[in-house]
Automatic annotation (TrEMBL):
This is Uncharacterized protein. InterPro entries: MTH938-like_sf (IPR036748), NDUFAF3/AAMDC (IPR007523). PANTHER family: NADH DEHYDROGENASE [UBIQUINONE] 1 ALPHA SUBCOMPLEX ASSEMBLY FACTOR 3, NUCLEAR PROTEIN E3-3. It comes from the Bacteria. Transmembrane segments: none annotated.
Length: 130
């Protein structure tokens, strides 16, 4: 699905499909095929997990390190909730946290980033099934 953000002056998500997400920043577009964390202030790093079952507390602690006001967790093609214990670092820093499927997380990230919010999207990109 193609997503069209209003502003491209922040890192934006251009599209999403099974096994990939399209990103754009400063006029450069790229297709990402692994889980990733991106942020409205230019943060971008691989999130080393291929399946929801691979997630640990360390994954969410890493997302909290950028000190956003909100982390949006895209849990794959359906909504799945991380155990509350995984969210300790976020709670300790009073960082907001929302869980949604990855497509909804992409749309929500674009809206909030376009509004100038300090937001992180932690996107679980599972391999496309054949």
């Amino acid at each position: 699905m193609k997503l069209q953000p209003d502003h491209l002056d922040v890192q934006s998500i251009l599209g999403y499909g099974p096994g990939w997400v399209g990103l754009a920043h400063l006029g450069v577009a790229e297709k990402i095929e692994q889980s990733i964390v991106i942020g409205s202030r230019g943060e971008k790093f691989n999130w080393e997990c291929k399946r929801f079952e691979d997630l640990t507390e360390a994954h969410f602690t890493l997302a909290a390190a950028s000190k956003p006001e909100l982390v949006i967790f895209g849990s794959g093609d359906r909504i799945r909730f991380a155990p509350p214990a995984f969210l300790r670092a976020l709670m300790a820093q009073r960082i907001g946290f929302e869980t949604m499927d990855t497509l909804a997380a992409c749309r929500t990230y674009n809206i909030l980033a376009g509004e100038g919010r300090r937001v992180i999207a932690a996107l679980l990109i599972e391999p496309a099934s054949d």
